[in-house]
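## tool: complex_structure
## caller: assistant
## args:
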Amino acid sequence: MFGEYLENVRRNSPLIHNITNYVTANDAANILLACGGSPIMADAEEEAEDITSVCDGLCINLGTLNQSKVGAMLKAGKKANELGHPIVLDPVGAGSSAFRTESARKLMNEVRFDAIRGNITEIKTLALGKAGAHGVDADSADIVNKDNISSAIAFAKAFSASCGAVIVISGAEDIVCSACKAYVIKNGHPIMSRITGSGCMLSALTAAYITANKGHGLEAAAAAAAAMGVCGELAYERLLVTGGGNATFRNYLIDAVFNMDGDLLERRAKYEIQ
Amino acid sequence: MFGEYLENVRRNSPLIHNITNYVTANDAANILLACGGSPIMADAEEEAEDITSVCDGLCINLGTLNQSKVGAMLKAGKKANELGHPIVLDPVGAGSSAFRTESARKLMNEVRFDAIRGNITEIKTLALGKAGAHGVDADSADIVNKDNISSAIAFAKAFSASCGAVIVISGAEDIVCSACKAYVIKNGHPIMSRITGSGCMLSALTAAYITANKGHGLEAAAAAAAAMGVCGELAYERLLVTGGGNATFRNYLIDAVFNMDGDLLERRAKYEIQ
Amino acid sequence: MFGEYLENVRRNSPLIHNITNYVTANDAANILLACGGSPIMADAEEEAEDITSVCDGLCINLGTLNQSKVGAMLKAGKKANELGHPIVLDPVGAGSSAFRTESARKLMNEVRFDAIRGNITEIKTLALGKAGAHGVDADSADIVNKDNISSAIAFAKAFSASCGAVIVISGAEDIVCSACKAYVIKNGHPIMSRITGSGCMLSALTAAYITANKGHGLEAAAAAAAAMGVCGELAYERLLVTGGGNATFRNYLIDAVFNMDGDLLERRAKYEIQ
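## result:
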């Protein structure tokens, strides 16, 4: 099933408007090109609606946020809602500053998102108003593991029910869920947390997948998370052969997305439905 | 002839002021270093004239545009005109938003450019005021092919005659022309469109080439386009040997510029004059 | 001794707040992850104090400076001083524009820095108010060589005495000094100047090292400079084996930081104390 979602991205080549941070914008653009989509990065309020209108989907990422970008996000988000374009929110660093937390809430209040992807701390901040994150990584107290994954899934389903978006919580195992169904994705490799942009790239990929598979948001987001995880595994396997470190791994990860096909994704995707 | 223009870049090591987007700024900086030039990226209005003054050439790129950058572009452009520094305009996304189209026109009205490089849709937007682009790639209705290349060349020559700049239209074959002479560059590889920044990198390279070869703008711009195309071919050949995807290709492309010399460019450049 | 400082970075995993430029932000983030630290990039005035507060150290970099970032730098810097967080200043391009020179001076007046890292021209601009830099590279008249290194060390010690920060002057040999003791680091390779971000990456690395080794600022900064130099040598040696250019070198450099350990740094570090 996931393989078909991947092939639909290559077939439909969705054009994604990204309002994103300057740290990982290049990686996000290259991963969108790698998966068969096409990126345009634009964050000025003056052109937010125009750019959204010529695109097929929207990805809003709160990294390196500033006041002017928030204005662009609101305008682009409302326009995308009006046009029926799928929207992904990546609340990078929500909980790390009042500005990011409040901006994320404002976006949640004024824009309807199709999917929200973050680490457990960022998602909890959105859902519960809990702050206290340390930087852009998940807080150690929040880490999802075998013992608490059931309660994390219940929490994510409840959040999905309340906000209407597919919820994607990245971690050692990724949770991708709607109000009543959760995919637990068991692909990936720990080295993915040793490069910047793993999360941002998955958010961009998710935007491409849900845009190219309209009406199948949950499954498409699960396929994107599985694809990213499988590509992390493939990249790590290639790194073991050639040697190298996190910079080489980043390149191999994008390369793997470029070379991936539906069959390979079907064969390697590991997940449970709960 | 192209080989000499390349060697002049290495010899003169032009320092290029880039007012550019945050998606491909790193790639543009590294390709300028690779070709033998030197980059400085600076986009604040407060320092635009100062930075232009300590540089040898200027490259203005409309990616991730905002109002404050437009102010910097106008100030830097006027100062560069005053000092006789060559200027390249890359109208990224012109036609995709009224803001970009109008900013590009304003720049065209107030600054004299030595070269303008874009895809066919962006260049048509500048020349004809035609909008309706979809993102940052050429519109499918505009694509230049065997059947319409003669009319594309005639159009580009007429635009060059009216604005005084060398016109560079990137595509499967690149058109580089003045009012009365066109180089059709037949180098390159389709995978170049599967990375972000191919166009931005060529614009930066063009700025380096025309700055290091003053008084030979047309030939220098043609040499830059040929060099980029040859490096795309070399990078793809290397990719076939090592394996990899678009991320590895991006690195190999910059590497090829780094390792290129005038003799190799002479041997591999394929072009017609029309 | 340097090896222990490196291991402390891996052990303490310092979270560094970076207010930096968009050209090399991705490289700086990846090198922080490579060395065992963790990055957060955030440059909005609205969240500067919040972000600094959740981090352990701060790195302020003047590349692609604008007025709004200066405000964020001042707020973050004062908050970091208040909290006792180590701060590194990288005065990229100081001397190239009045705006950068004045912003650097304002920062020096209002914030106490633990370390300042730049090329000789940037450091002279800060210390002497001398302007006239050409871009972001050292001015040829300033280059430190065998004949003038003694006077450069004396100058750097005097500057350290007057401002209280460890001074790091990058060049063919790096000078890392306090008011009374200088390490002259003899590691590195000339190709490091053929990629963008060598300096920015070292500044970020220095922030990680001095944050993870509080109370040992001079030695930690010297260890960071030696580690960067050794990694440059290792990356170049790997490049000789695989072939490639500056893009591949950049990846290998970050990879080398990722794979480096204290023993290797001890064995390869070459320095004199003066």
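## assistant note: Chain B touches chain A through 33 residues (CB under 8 Å). The two ends of chain B are 17 Å apart (CA to CA). Handing back to user.
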